[in-house]
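Q: Here's a chain of 207 amino acids. Please give me its 3D structure as tokens.
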Amino acid sequence: MFCERKITIPPKPKYTKEEIINAALDMVREKGADSLTARDLGAKLNTSARPIFTAFENMEDLKNAVTDAGVKMFKEYSKNFTDYTPAFKQMGMQIISFATKEPKLFEFLFMHKNPEAVQGLKTVEDTCVDVISKDYGLGIEQARMLFEQVWIFTFGLAALSAMKVYEYTEEQISDMLTREFTGAVMMMKSDLKKINTNKPEKNGGNR
């Protein structure tokens, strides 16, 4: 006689991976990175911590997934900056607006050592450099130098806004970015002009 073997079907997960990520992202947006613990996330989902560790290896794995979701949200927020003129200034405006409206998420992504978030923004950086190069007639190397210089200023305004140190109006932010970027462009072009006009002459040339 053959014995019938019962096939055990594992129980269906109470929450999907995406649902857990979304709940964790909401926690970070509301209360910051320190609020994201397995116990508190389980309470938010009205369950224990067990479903979390069924979907993720550990909390670090979950935080990486939350970072990816946060970067995706940031990119979605700022994706249309190339539709504006000047495009790079609009990108700065959107970064600061994001920091103002999503201060806890901005802090989680960009004010801690977070290689995943930095890597996720590389495509945005490359787009900005390309836009600067085309709009202002600069080579890629000069455009990247300009981006880095203005990015530091923009990031500083965003951090101050996220931390509520200052509450700038949109008009104030626009004026500050215009002054910083215009000054940086003029300095960059002035330096390039000096380089081009101070080339050494060939032997025998007029002195």
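Q: Can you summarize the key feature?
A: The chain has a mean pLDDT of 84.
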